[in-house]
């Protein structure tokens, strides 16, 4: 019995850091509506800065002084980020905010490696709290007791701050109605800055307090951010109390899951999040009206089919791409095939996001299911490649049917987080079901048929399937189904009023997008000759979002261009620089701030602007008349 009590207390200690980071994210979202993917980066910076201060200035600041100073320093860095970057995108759709903060995360990861190196760093023990005390034969670290007390203390302090101070009243008012607060004469900019500083301070403090417990490394940000998003969504966006309860729940599930449910311990928290979102879409302590907010926030103009000139240009580009084997090396052909595969992946997500208005954070689930589908058929059943390519994506289709039915019942951030939960469930099953999937070792030897075994022939196959997929998706965009889907995106009530079954249309779109993503995954398995759990990981889902937003989510062809540019740039940077994430993150941030419409959207705007200026330019005769007057 004492063992379970100790396990419970250990879960409470872990909940403290999780609550600090989650409460900061919840505060920031509640007021600024920024979906801050970089929140984990501030947590990581807090740990790194605290390590440096406690090691080098321990005689001056002391251990606890170094912890507090680290949180303050990172909070000041957060203020600079808010003033220089986030102020420019407060009115942007949440997806663009996510993209900008993701780019910032990439930059911070490489900067951390550049400053502190790639190795794990072991911090000092907290003075006076280095030992443990005996609890019926079980040792409980003294430092864990401090963390157990810290969580409720911080919760109480935040409650007093938000309910007993004028600043807190303004923050709560801004959470309800930002425009009304501005109308009352409150300086919104500095209110947002102060809120962001507090949120970053809490995240950095959570990271700094971990140095006596865990090694400091440059992967801390992605490890914590997924759990933090889970906590915030379960508790309810904007709710500090909800973040505390959810942090305890998630930490205890992690502590006891490995003991009670060892086979599903990794996916346990995501199963709980999925159940909570299905039963109570706005979270345990969230407000119901928040669920109605649409996440994409896209102002997609009425699209028109390609003109004759554009069609001829597209055919010419396809012919040039098909000629690559005549000029390029085998490496170039492998890269070209990979880019073509990710074009399918990006186009499928674009169809869901732009046409359907549904932003999925877990689109990699169907990519991974398609990859595992062909691997099972090829390795376990020994079927030929053509049969595997036809039947393998059906696993992704089935996953999209099941997950999509639940997901389309939600909207906005809650829809996105439920898709993330489903994707993590798929990843966790692939990682833990070692007997079938091979676990982290993957499934090897998924080689293409002899007919397409050469780089040139496989490239042509990938290019042909990509061209077919893009054409089919484009036909769907301008089909009656595509118009019905856009109607549900623009106004669910109006579409229902004219007889469109909105949920059924959205579900169908979800299944279509998932099937094409599975097709891309099936091709990718043959390209790499293997399948791993990372094929369904969160990093791949984020990559697909970046591709779509980089090319231009408000354009039909943006996903194609975005996939080509992002994938080619990623491969090139990895080959030629050790700071690929820093450069790539900087480019992403620059595009979001300077070219929010994406590459294709910005190009179209420039072309349209040039035409308008030409139309406005007076004729020579009119200019002469104006001069005579």
Q: What key phrases describe this protein's structure?
A:
two-stranded antiparallel ribbon, 28 helices, 2% strand, globular, disordered C terminus
Mind explaining what this structure looks like?
- The N and C termini lie far apart (99 Å).
- Mean pLDDT is 83; it is low at 290-297 and 612-629.
- It is globular, with a radius of gyration of 26 Å.
- The chain has a two-stranded antiparallel sheet. Strands 3-4 form a two-stranded antiparallel ribbon.
- The chain is built from 28 helices and 4 strands.
- The chain has 629 residues and is mainly α.
- Strand 1 (132-135) and strand 2 (138-141) form a beta hairpin.
- Helix 2 (39-56) packs across helix 9, helix 4 (94-116) runs antiparallel to helix 26 and helix 21 packs across helix 23.
- The longest helix has 31 residues, at 2-32.
Short description:
It is built from 28 helices and four strands. With 629 residues, the chain is an all-alpha fold. The strands form two sheets. The chain has a two-stranded antiparallel sheet with strand order 1-2. The protein has a two-stranded antiparallel ribbon with strand order 3-4.
Q: What is the 3D shape?
A: globular
Count of helical stretches: 28
Work out the number of β strands.
4
Largest sheet, in brief, is: 2 strands, antiparallel
Separation of the first and last Cα atoms: 99 Å
**Major β-sheet strand ordering:** 1-2
Helicity level, as a percent range? Answer: over 70%
Q: What structural class do helix, strand and pairing data support? A: mainly alpha
Q: Which whole number gives the mean pLDDT?
A: 83
Oligomer: single chain
Radius of gyration: 26 Å
Low-confidence parts lasting 5 or more residues at pLDDT below 50? Answer: 290-297, 612-629
Strand-residue proportion? under 5%
């Amino acid at each position: 019995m004492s063992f379970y009590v100790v396990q419970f207390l250990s879960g409470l200690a872990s909940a403290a850091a999780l609550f600090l980071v989650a409460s900061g994210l919840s505060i920031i979202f509640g007021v600024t509506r920024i979906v801050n993917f970089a929140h984990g980066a501030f947590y990581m910076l807090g740990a790194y800065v605290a390590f440096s201060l406690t090691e080098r200035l321990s005689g001056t600041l002391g251990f606890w002084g170094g912890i507090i100073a680290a949180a303050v320093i990172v909070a000041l860095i957060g203020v600079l980020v808010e003033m220089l970057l986030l102020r420019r995108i407060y009115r942007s759709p949440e997806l663009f905010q996510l993209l900008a903060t993701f780019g910032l995360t990439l930059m911070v990861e490489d900067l951390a490696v550049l400053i502190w190196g790639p190795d794990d760093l072991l911090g000092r023990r907290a003075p006076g709290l280095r030992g443990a005390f005996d609890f019926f034969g079980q040792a409980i670290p003294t430092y864990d007791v401090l963390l157990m007390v810290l969580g409720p203390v911080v919760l109480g302090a935040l409650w007093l701050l938000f309910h007993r101070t004028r600043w807190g009243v303004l923050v709560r008012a801004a959470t309800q109605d930002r425009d009304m607060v501005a109308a009352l004469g409150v300086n919104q900019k500095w209110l947002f800055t102060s809120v962001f500083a507090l949120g970053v301070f809490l995240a950095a403090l959570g990271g700094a307090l971990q140095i006596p417990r865990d090694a400091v490394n440059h992967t801390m940000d992605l490890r914590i951010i997924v759990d933090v998003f889970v906590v915030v969504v379960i508790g309810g966006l904007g709710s500090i109390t909800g973040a505390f309860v959810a942090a305890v729940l998630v930490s205890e599930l992690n502590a006891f899951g490995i003991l009670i449910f060892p086979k599903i311990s990794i996916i346990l928290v995501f199963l709980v999040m999925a159940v909570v979102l299905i039963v109570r879409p706005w979270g345990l302590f969230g407000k119901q009206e928040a669920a109605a907010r649409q996440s994409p926030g896209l102002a997609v103009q009425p699209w028109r089919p390609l003109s004759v000139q554009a069609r001829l240009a597209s055919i010419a580009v396809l012919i040039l791409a098909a000629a690559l084997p005549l000029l390029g090396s085998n490496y170039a052909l492998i890269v070209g095939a990979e880019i073509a595969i990710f074009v399918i992946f990006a186009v499928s997500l674009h169809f869901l996001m732009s046409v359907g208005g549904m932003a999925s954070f877990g689109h990699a689930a169907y990519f991974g299911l398609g990859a595992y589908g062909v691997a099972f058929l090829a390795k376990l059943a020994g079927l030929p490649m053509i049969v595997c390519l036809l039947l393998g994506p059906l696993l992704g289709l089935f996953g999209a049917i099941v997950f999509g039915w639940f997901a389309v019942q939600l909207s906005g951030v809650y829809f996105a987080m439920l898709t993330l939960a489903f994707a993590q469930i798929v990843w966790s099953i692939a990682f833990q079901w070692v007997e079938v999937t091979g676990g982290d070792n993957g499934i090897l030897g998924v080689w293409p048929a002899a007919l397409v075994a050469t780089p040139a022939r496989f490239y042509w196959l990938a290019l042909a399937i990509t061209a077919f997929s893009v054409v089919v998706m484009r036909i769907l965009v301008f089909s009656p189904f595509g118009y019905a889907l856009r109607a549900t995106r623009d106004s669910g009530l109006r579409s229902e009023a004219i007889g469109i079954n909105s949920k059924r249309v959205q579900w169908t779109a979800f299944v279509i997008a998932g099937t094409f993503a599975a097709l891309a995954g099936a091709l990718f398995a043959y390209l790499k000759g293997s399948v791993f759990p990372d094929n369904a990981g969160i990093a791949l889902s984020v990559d697909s979002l970046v591709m779509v937003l980089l090319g231009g989510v408000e354009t039909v062809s943006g996903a194609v261009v975005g996939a080509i540019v992002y994938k080619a740039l990623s491969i090139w940077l990895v080959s030629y620089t050790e700071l690929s994430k820093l450069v790539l993150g900087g480019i992403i941030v620059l595009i979001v701030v300077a070219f929010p419409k994406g590459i294709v959207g910005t190009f179209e705007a420039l072309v349209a602007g040039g035409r308008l200026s030409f139309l406005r330019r007076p004729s020579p005769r009119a200019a002469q008349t104006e001069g005579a007057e």
